[in-house]
Amino acid sequence: MIQNPIPWPNGARCACAITFDVDADSLIHIARPKDSWNRLYPITMGRYGPTVGVPRILETYRRLGLKQSFFIPGWTMERYPEAVEAILTGGHEIGHHGYLHEDPTEISPEAQRSAFEKALAIHRRMTGLTPRGYRAPVYNATQATIDLLIEHGFSYDSSLMADDIPYRMRSGGKHLYEVPPHWGSDDWPPFAHYAEIGYMMPVQPPEQGLAASFAEFEAQYEAGGFWMGIWHPFLTGRLARWAVVERWLEQVLATRKVWFAPLEEIVAHVERLVAAGEYQVRTEELPYFTQPVAG
Ligand SMILES: [Zn+2]
């Protein structure tokens, strides 16, 4: 049961989005800045995402008529312009995902602002657009992150987890929507095996690893909610896993009342309902805390 379900367009029972975080090799460069340049295995594991995974994913979306969202660090956009071009040509959304995948909790608010604005300039130059949405690297948004998004007129964040469905945050008297992710439908726990950055997950077989995401979908569908995959092209874009996703997508699109859309469209839909007085959105008041809780 969801206390406050959102009425979706065209009688859809569940809004759905697959979001891909196209980190590529930014992950190793931010984690091991001294010698990442000469660590060819993690560089290539990351490069697979924009060069092999993204074209495969885009071809499936084209065949099935889907438009979806991608979050890409600014550094990665500059390094892989063909992937950016292909995503834009397919009519998909590109959201802000930091400059070099900096973890906002690991850097000062000043350094965060600098990286954020550098990435924003890259988005504008390469896409001709100002992104509407943001996802914090490692989901690690801070209060300063939320304030930056509000200051720069973003319509949504997709890093925080206070609800099953999109909700609103109010900070300093201004609003920002949250499109909540969760680890339950993130491909990192089942598939990431990356000792250099501290992850040694036991890699699961494709069906089993994706089953967690699909179980989240079934529960959200039953409740009339919102389902989102938070996946990475270098993990779920690999052949065996993507074959499972393709079969699942074909079956869901053929048999269920679902609305697959980019996050910016899902947020715009909720905004329209709220503006028209047709939906009361739940609002979280920020900041949650202004000093250490444990003293
Ligand atoms: Zn990322």
From TrEMBL:
<protein>
    <recommendedName>
        <fullName>Chitooligosaccharide deacetylase</fullName>
    </recommendedName>
</protein>
<comment type="similarity">
    <text>Belongs to the polysaccharide deacetylase family.</text>
</comment>
<dbReference type="InterPro" id="IPR037950">
    <property type="entry name" value="PgdA-like"/>
</dbReference>
<dbReference type="GO" id="GO:0005975">
    <property type="term" value="P:carbohydrate metabolic process"/>
</dbReference>
<dbReference type="Pfam" id="PF01522">
    <property type="entry name" value="Polysacc_deac_1"/>
</dbReference>
<comment type="function">
    <text>Is involved in generating a small heat-stable compound (Nod), an acylated oligomer of N-acetylglucosamine, that stimulates mitosis in various plant protoplasts.</text>
</comment>
<dbReference type="GO" id="GO:0016810">
    <property type="term" value="F:hydrolase activity, acting on carbon-nitrogen (but not peptide) bonds"/>
</dbReference>
<feature type="domain" description="NodB homology">
    <location>
        <begin position="39"/>
        <end position="295"/>
    </location>
</feature>
<dbReference type="InterPro" id="IPR011330">
    <property type="entry name" value="Glyco_hydro/deAcase_b/a-brl"/>
</dbReference>
<dbReference type="InterPro" id="IPR002509">
    <property type="entry name" value="NODB_dom"/>
</dbReference>
